[in-house]
Design a protein that fits this description.
Layout: H1 2-25, H2 27-52, H3 55-77, H4 83-99, H5 104-117, E1 124-127, H6 154-166, E2 172-175, H7 190-196, E3 201-206, H8 213-222, E4 225-231, H9 235-242, H10 246-260, E5 265-270, H11 281-290, E6 296-300, H12 317-333, E7 337-339, E8 359-362, E9 367-369, E10 376-377, E11 379-380, H13 381-386, H14 398-412, H15 431-438, E12 444-445, H16 448-455, H17 457-481, H18 485-490
Helix pairs in contact: 1-2, 1-4, 2-3, 8-10, 12-17
Bound molecules: iron/sulfur cluster.
The site of iron/sulfur cluster has 11 residues, from loops.
Length: about 500
Amino acid sequence: MKKLNEAKEKIKQNAYLFLIEKAIDSQTGRRILINQFSKRIQKVVIEEGSKTKLKAVQQRKSQWIKALLKQFLKNYEKGYISRHAAKKGLEVLGLNNFFSSSLSEIKKAKESFRNKYQIDPPAFLVISPTQKCNLRCKGCYAASSSETKATLPFDIFDKILKENHDIFGSRFITISGGEPLMYKSQGKDLLDIFEKYNDTLFIFYTNGTLMTEDLAEKLAKTGNAFPQISVEGFEKETDERRGKGIFQKILRSMEYLKKAGVPYAVSVTATRKNVNTLLDDEFFDFWFEKQGANHMWLFQLMPIGRGKEVFDLMPTPEERIKLYRKWEQLLEKGYPVADFWNSGVLSNGCIAYGRSGGYFYVDWNGYITPCVFIPYYVDNVYDLYKEGKTVAEALFSDFFKKGREWQNKYGFARPQKAKNWLMPCSIRDNYRYFREAILPDDAKGEDSFAEEARNSKEYFEGLDKYDKKLKKLTQPIWDKEYLSEKNKKSKVED
Ligand code: SF4
C-alpha cells in the first residue's frame, strides 16, 4: 500500500513538472497550471489541512499561496522573469510545498534525522555570512556598518549549507546580513554558493545598492537566487532612514533585475514614521503593479541592536492592528504580502528554534540563535566543529528545547486550540514568558546591545506593556474570527 501511494505521488509530481514546462511556453498552459494548482491547494491546504487545523487559518494560507503564484506568472507574462528562473521558482514552490515527501533524497535525509533525534528537521536556515554593510541605517537590527567586519570564512559557510542540504534535507536558504553582496572570503562570494547548490532556492536580503547589470545577468544564469530589496516606503522615507539617493539606486537595480529576468521581492521595515504609508493602497500598487515585485515582506521594527535607542519607533499595538487589517485586505486583493508578526497564521505560529517546518539562524560570528530577532546564543559553529559535531546539535540545547516546548503549548502541537497566533512571537509578543521560562542564564548576547536589553528594566517593562495592550486588542479578534465555537469552549487559558 505504501509503495502504491508513493508511485501515485510520483506520477502526480511528474505531471506537475510537465505542466510547468507547458505553462512556461503558453498562456493556455499557464491557465491550466493555475487551475491545477488551485485544486491541489484546495485539497491539501483546505480539505486535508482543515481536519487538523483551524479552517480560517488554512484559508489565509491558501490565499497567500495563490496570490504568490498569480503575481509570479503575471510578472513572467510582463517579461520580468526569465524562462529559467520561472521554471526553477515554480519547481521549488510546488515540489517543496506539496510533493517533497516523494523526493527520495530529501525523504531519506528527513527520515534519518527523525530516527536520530526523534523530531522533524527544520525546513530551512537563515544565515548572515557577513556583518559588513555599505550603509548605516537608523535602528538597523544587525547594528552593521562598513566598520563592522565579522565574516564567516567560506569553508565554514559552505559546511553549514552542506549540512542544511544533507542533514535536514532542506532545499531552501535565506541569506541576510549585513549586506550579503559585500561577502567575500577565500576568493569566493555568494555566486559561488548559488552555483554550487543549484538544487536549492535562495532568497537574499539586500539594500539593493550594489546590484549591477553584470551581477543581474549572473543571477539570471544561476536562476535560483532571488533578491529581497529593502525599502522604507517611497523616496522620502527610504532616503530618510537609509541615506540620500538610495531610493533612486534601488529603482535602478530593479530595472537591471527585470531586464535580466530575475524575480525579486520588496522588504519593508514598519515603523511609527512610515505606518501611514503602509496603510495606503497606493504604496502596494506602486511596488506590485508598477515595479513588478513578486512578493513583499513587512517587518515591524524590533527594538534590538541600535533599535533599543529607538524603542519609540516601534509601531504601537493599535497601529499593529491596523496593519493586520490592511494585510487581510491585501491578500483579498491578491497581493502576496507577509507581515512577519501579523501573519503568524501562515506558518502555524512562531517558526524559530529549529522547529519542524521552521528555521534557526547563524550569524557572521558563527553564533547559532533561535531566530534573527532573538539575539542570544548558547552554541557557535566553530566550537561545534572543533568537537566533531554538526549544526544539528545546536537544536538540542535547553534554550532551543524550551522554545519548542513553548511553541507546542502555544498551539503548534494542537493547532485547533492555538492560543493566539495574532501574537505569535516568542520574544516580542510574549517577552515576560521568554525571559522567565525560555532564555537560560548561560545564553550569551550576540552583541553588547543584546546584553544591555537583557539587563534593562526599562526594556523589560516597555515590551511587557506592549504585550499586555496587544493581547487586549488581538484576543477578541482571534477568538471571534479564528477559533471555532467548539474550540472556544475548551481553549486553555494562560
Ligand atoms: S521568535 Fe518571533 S520573529 Fe522569530 S520566528 Fe518566532 S515569531 Fe518570528
